Amino acid sequence: MSDLRVSKNAKFTAVAESGPGTPNRPGIDNLILGKRLKHFRKAAGLTLEQLGASVGLSASQLSLYENGKREPKLTILQTLARELGTDIQKLFATEAPNRRSALEIALEQMQRTTIYKNLGLPQIRSPKSVPTDTLEAIVGLGKEVHRQAQQRAATAEGAKQANTLLRDKMRSRNNYLPEIEEIAEDLMASIGHTTGALTHRAVDVLANKLGFSLVFVHDLPSNTRSITDLENGRIYLPPASIPGGHGLRALALQAMAHHVLGHETPWDYAQFLQQRLEINYFASACLMPEKRTADFLQAAKRERNLAIEDLRDAFGVTHEAAAHRFTNLATEHLDLRVHFYRATAAGVLVRGYQNDGLEFPTDGYGNEEGQLICKYWGGRTAFKRKNRTNEFYQYTDTPEGTFWSSAQTGESETDGGFSITCGVSFDDAKWFRGRDTQKRTVSLCPAEECCKRPDELMAERWEGKSWASARMHQHILSPLPSGTFPGVDEAEMYEFLTRHDAEFQG
Q: DSSP letter at 243?
């Protein structure tokens, strides 16, 4: 892998709890690195004291490196490699030096997980004192606990709860992750991307710098968006995506993000959702780098001409990507609190974010996704207009106050009709294009009399005299997909990798 990642990624502190991966070298685990150091030291017949004296380090400091508790600098690793008669690439190998070391690493990683911590079990501080067969049994039991925990967590209710907690966490941070912003900004500068939309060529250059090649194939498993061959540094992508190519650029950036951000295999569904959020954020931050995007938005605000469609066109992304990116930067750079949501034509809330006080509908557990938004909100009234090519502007009086919104409608194969809505409170509408709209509605939701209770005369006319065959959501009775990567058929994934690896070898 390129040294490009060595100086940049140490700044990243994920929203989720940190794992054992080396932040400066994604894909290199501190525990594995330490075990390999110890392996080569013993092979050279040196004690910690002897090796430390020859390289100018204390035995205690070397012990911290070997136990994976401290990350050695690259220069120190180079010195150690020379002293041990090996090369640094062998130290960076991703496999443990032997079976015993692999078991000790697996035990340490298992004990760092939330699943293990929640069990309230004591930590095994010195795995070297545990017999190998006992260690095998402990690690095997840990894997089974992990598997069963995945099955329990991979339920619709568990996923909703994890998503609600993640949404609340992001609201507390104003949907802004400066750690990822800085990494993306530095990476874009490193490939010379300073103006205009990010090109496919630039994405390919970035992949090469990070040690990957992009391979476009027609036979990706249907339940995957991309597959990364970590051993050979290949990222497999579909040959085409949505019109304009934004989808392919984003997919490639998301695949790289797992390694740039030092992600490990997710241990539970909450961590899976966390990682999805972070890779999407990283891709957006690369497609719309923070400084240039903030400068663009600040200039538009000074002119009182903020518009999501302008942001979309300036960076060559989708309307939804531009609206969501706006929520990342609006509070931090424009001092604006905002709301954003995607809804189907039927009014089902697909995803949403707000820190401006607008109350999204929720179920009894606080879950927003899947709820019906008020039919008087802009994300639904936008479908009533005849000309849907431009943004639709509206003021909505709600129990929480008056909000201005801009909505754009579209069509997709999965959702059918959908709307992307972004808005602010009444006082902040003055900064946006469309603030002079005369369209104004009143929403009393969640009060039943707003839009959920039928007209009394109509109800009297038709109650007991009509019947509807309801359209049932195709996933409503399906269990949430489980597995190492939820929703991915691992057998099909490994068959795909084997097939394509054989093509490259041949």
A: T
